Amino acid sequence: MSVSIDVLRGYRLFSELSESELKSLSDKFRMKTVPDKEVFIHANEISHNIYLIVEGGVSVEVATPDQSMEELAKLHKGQTVGEFILAKETRRSATVRAIGELTLYETSKDELTDLFENHPRLGYLVYRNLSEVLVDRIRDTNMLARNALGLISQQF
C-alpha cells in the first residue's frame, strides 16, 4: 500500500517536493498500527525505520538514572519519528510509545537511500528539510536542559 501524495505533502521532511517526487516516495511506505501504550521504538536498539504519524500521537521518553521514564516530547499527526537514522546510523536515543491507537506509515533508511541515489534532487530536499527538523529538536532539547538546570540550581 502506498501513501497518498496529499498525505506526504503534510510532512515537513517532504515539503517542496514535486508531484512526481512525492509519487516516487509514496511507494516506499507501508501502513502500521500500534495499540495504545505499546513501545515500537526501544532506546539503544539498532533500527533503520522511519515513521510518519498519520493518526494518534507518541510519547518520546528516556530512562532516568533511577530507571524511571521521563517524557521528552509528544509528537502527533503530521510529525515524523525515527528520522535521525537518515543523518547517522546509530542506536536509538529514546523509547517511543503510542498514545492511544496509533497509525503510522513506515519505511526504511535503505529504501529511501536507494530512492535518493536515483533522484538526487529529492534526496537533497529531504536532507535539507531534515537538517531543519534536527536543528529545531536540538533547540527544544537545549531549552529543556536549561530549564532543568535552572530548577536544580534553585534547590541549592
Count of distinct structural domains: 1
Q: What count of helical segments does DSSP give?
A: 4
CATH secondary-structure class? Mainly Beta
Q: Count the strands?
A: 6
Mean pLDDT: 91
Give the uncertain stretches in residue-range form. none
Task: Work out the radius of gyration.
Answer: 17 Å
The proportion of residues forming helix, as a percent range, comes to: 25-40%
Largest sheet: 6 strands, antiparallel
Q: What is the CATH fold-level name?
A: Jelly Rolls
CATH homologous superfamily classification: Jelly Rolls
Structural class: alpha+beta
SSE order in H/E notation? HHEEEEEEHH
Strand content bin: 25-35%
The oligomerization state is: single chain
Shape summary: globular
In words, what does this structure look like?
- The relative contact order is 0.20.
- A hairpin with a 5-residue loop joins strand 3 and strand 4 (69-76).
- The protein is built from four helices and six strands.
- By secondary structure, it is of the alpha+beta class.
- Strands 1, 2, 3, 4, 5 and 6 form a six-stranded antiparallel β-sheet that branches.
- The model has no long low-confidence stretch (mean pLDDT 91).
- It is globular.
- It has one domain: Jelly Rolls.
- InterPro entries: cNMP-bd_dom, cNMP-bd_dom_sf, KCNH_animal-type, RmlC-like_jellyroll.
- GO terms for molecular function: voltage-gated potassium channel activity.
- Residues 13-133 form the Cyclic nucleotide-binding domain.
- This is Cyclic nucleotide-binding domain-containing protein.
